[in-house]
Amino acid sequence: MTTTGTLKSSSSELDLDRPNIEDYLPTGSSIQQEPHGKLRLHDLLDISPTLSEAAGAIVDDSFTRCFKSNPPEPWNWNVYLFPLWCCGVVFRYLILFPARILVLTIGWIIFLSSFIPVHFLLKGQDKLRRNIERSLVEMMCSFFVASWTGVVKYHGPRPSRRPKQVFVANHTSMIDFIILEQMTAFAVIMQKHPGWVGLLQSTILESVGCIWFNRTEAKDREIVARKLREHVQGADNNPLLIFPEGTCVNNHYTVMFKKGAFELGCTVCPVAIKYNKIFVDAFWNSRKQSFTKHLLQLMTSWAVVCDVWYLEPQNLKPGETPIEFAERVRDIISHRAGLKKVPWDGYLKYSRPSPKHRERKQQNFAESMLRRLEEK
Amino acid sequence: MGNSSSMLTQYDIEEVQKYCEDTFTQQEIVSLYSRFCQLDRKNCGFIPSDEFLSIPEFSLNPLSHSLLNMLDGLNFKEFVAFLSVFSPRATMQHKIEFIFKVYDTDCNGKVTFRDILRVLKDMTGQFMPEKQMEEILTQVLEEAGYQKDSVLVLSDFMKILGDSDLKMEVDFHVD
């Protein structure tokens, strides 16, 4: 293992980000039951275990499952309930939705009309300006939550503002951030988005100390790591919030946590978020819909119901590597929110897995071949 | 309500069942269909190899490239037929035929020394030098009564693989 102090993200260190896939996968029979006896032609030609593994992955695999939006249960196709459901649709789209748009518009007007003057007029008094901006962002997020009738239950003590701590949460949608932000103004690390979200990111959210990066830029990794270190040292900075999965997962699973948040030498405060899918699926499938469409979907549903747990802060134990620490925190969050853990790196959505794991299988096969060749 | 699997009619299912010689139940075909639609993201009627490779568990498989050649451009019926050999209801004969096809890339019904070597190379990667592999294969072939230049046909495969129980089953669970 490398020393935790270094910042360099060389390719070898990137590999450490990778999970021990073998610990999770249903191990193929090829490795499990070690065949014995002399090597025969039959053993060389029999590739059935490997074929079965491949076919199993085609039929179902744990990675795709993480990003599958679950289709809603069609409860409404029932003669008695159908008219009721129709009334609901009319109400949701013609009354609820316009009312919510109105709420959101009012929110924006109040927000912008106070944020812009504060931002430009109070240039001299940094402390006061930051306090006001902080509350304004919190208020705007409350308007957002109101615009989908967010029924959010917060459990546990509210986050405090102090140096050397970082909050990590599981990630389902960008609304995670809004829901957490309405209680406490967090500084969040997020992927830079295009469009109006990107505009908000670079103007307003910058003022609460948010840090943006581009997932695909290797250079950004280093810059973000440096910014992170600087940020956690400041006593008056907003608490840092990181979604270490690096991508939205459908709230049934957790993918690997990136270790960045766990090697800052800070206290890690886990936050678990669990959505109730009774009215709407809050998973943002960014491949299928834009964020605007996702928001509209939320705004035309009855309500967004969710639970947020602020869990007990955790520290790196002596002798623990950042990766083990990340796994331990993932355990805590998955357990609290009732999510299943899978061994995949969420970035596999954007890239192919490293051939390392295939090599391990090949090595096993080659070694067993040689071993059996010597048996007589 | 946008539930793609409901688009299969009873006739479709029966047709597919007949095509794969009743190795799958109707429920299994329905769930295979929703999987097919999930992987066929762009609705082109077949699954592009890129989509298969985006399944990490598949792309890490040593034989993924050989299988991709067989999977290329299959429509749903052929896709089900492809998977049918992994059903517990498939016969031994079918399973061995399938394995034979993995070796016989040029589909001429003959498996040569080169063909076996190619698959072995996929299976062992960089962990065995080609020279050593050739030696081992020659030795094992000779012990089994073949020569280095002999050509194996399907019946040879039946003889070699048929007497043991192949573990070639996949759980086609129903959601």
UniProtKB/TrEMBL annotation, chain A:
GO terms for cellular component: endoplasmic reticulum; membrane. SMART domains: PlsC (SM00563). Pathway: Lipid metabolism. The keyword Transit peptide does not apply. Residues 165-276 form the Phospholipid/glycerol acyltransferase domain. The chain crosses the membrane at residues 77-95, 101-122. Keywords: Acyltransferase, Lipid biosynthesis, Lipid metabolism, Membrane, Phospholipid biosynthesis, Phospholipid metabolism, Transferase, Transmembrane, Transmembrane helix. It is found in: Membrane. One of its GO terms (biological process) is triglyceride biosynthetic process. One of its GO terms (molecular function) is glycerol-3-phosphate O-acyltransferase activity. Belongs to the 1-acyl-sn-glycerol-3-phosphate acyltransferase family. PANTHER family: GLYCEROL-3-PHOSPHATE ACYLTRANSFERASE 4, ISOFORM D-RELATED (PTHR23063:SF2), PHOSPHOLIPID ACYLTRANSFERASE (PTHR23063). This is Phospholipid/glycerol acyltransferase domain-containing protein. It comes from Arachis hypogaea.
Automatic annotation (TrEMBL), chain B:
Gene3D superfamilies: EF-hand. One of its GO terms (molecular function) is calcium ion binding. It comes from the Eukaryota. Keywords: Calcium. SUPFAM superfamilies: EF-hand. Residues 91-126 form the EF-hand domain. PROSITE patterns: EF_HAND_1 (PS00018), EF_HAND_2 (PS50222). This is EF-hand domain-containing protein. It comes from Arachis hypogaea. The lineage of its organism: Eukaryota, Viridiplantae, Streptophyta, Embryophyta, Tracheophyta.
